[in-house]
Every structure is written in C-alpha cells, then in structure tokens.
Amino acid sequence: MTQPISSMPHFPQLMQPGLPPSMNESGMIGGGSFQDLLLGAVSETNQLELNAQNAIDRSMLGEDISQVEVMSAVKKADLSMRLLLQMRNKLMEAYQEIQQLRM
After folding, report:
1. What integer pLDDT is reported at residue 29 of this predicted model?
2. What pLDDT, on the 0 to 100 scale, is given for residue 66?
3. 1 domain residue, yes or no
4. pTM (2 decimals)?
C-alpha cells in the first residue's frame, strides 16, 4: 500500500528526485509553465477536499466505508492544503522581497 513519493503520478516532473530538469521549446523547465503548476496544485487540493467530504458523507450515511479510509482521505486533503498554504506563503514572501528592491 505504501509507494515511494517519486513514483506517484500526480507529482510534477520538477518535484521528482533524480530527474534532471529539461527545457522545452518555449524555454520552460519541466514542460509546463509556473502558472500551470500552481493551477494543478490548487485543482488537486480541491479534488482531495471533495474526496474527503465524499468519504465523510458516505460514512455518515452508513455506506460500506471504513473509518481508516475516511481518516486517510481527510489526512490527504489536510496535507495537500498545508502544502498549498506553504506555497502561497513562500510566494508572498518572494513578492514582498521584490517590492522592496530599489530601482
């Protein structure tokens, strides 16, 4: 049931250890833009949140889902949200640092 993080398909190429970044024709590293990376992270976090809510709803309705599956879905959504918040915090720090640069 446990998989190494690098073998999970939803990780972008930039986050996989051991893979050298390669530039495509547009000069972007990893085959996608930074905007696509952020939108993908937001979309994935949203999907995990929906899956967690669906698991909770199914559990409350008495469907055939174990508490372990519910807790796993909730923890995945929580971890994804924490990662997204850290990404936002780092982006805000970088933006504020750029604002303080003198021309």
Report:
1. 54
2. 94
3. no
4. 0.65
Secondary-structure breakdown of the chain: helix, strand, coil percentages, each rounded to the nearest 5: 65, 0, 35
**In this predicted structure, what is the pLDDT of residue 27?**
54
Boundaries of domain holding 72: 44-103
Helix, strand, or coil (residue 23): strand
Sequence-separated contacts (24+) of 68-75 with Cβ below 8 Å: 73/48
Classify residue 18: in a domain, yes or no: no
Total number of domains constituting the chain: 1
Say if 88 falls within a structural domain: yes
For the chain, residues with pLDDT lower than 70 are 1-31
Shortest CA distance to 24 belongs to which of 16, 15, 32? 32
Using the Cα atoms of residue 36, residue 18, residue 8 and residue 15 in order, give the sign of their dihedral.
Answer: negative
Residue 48 located in a structural domain: yes
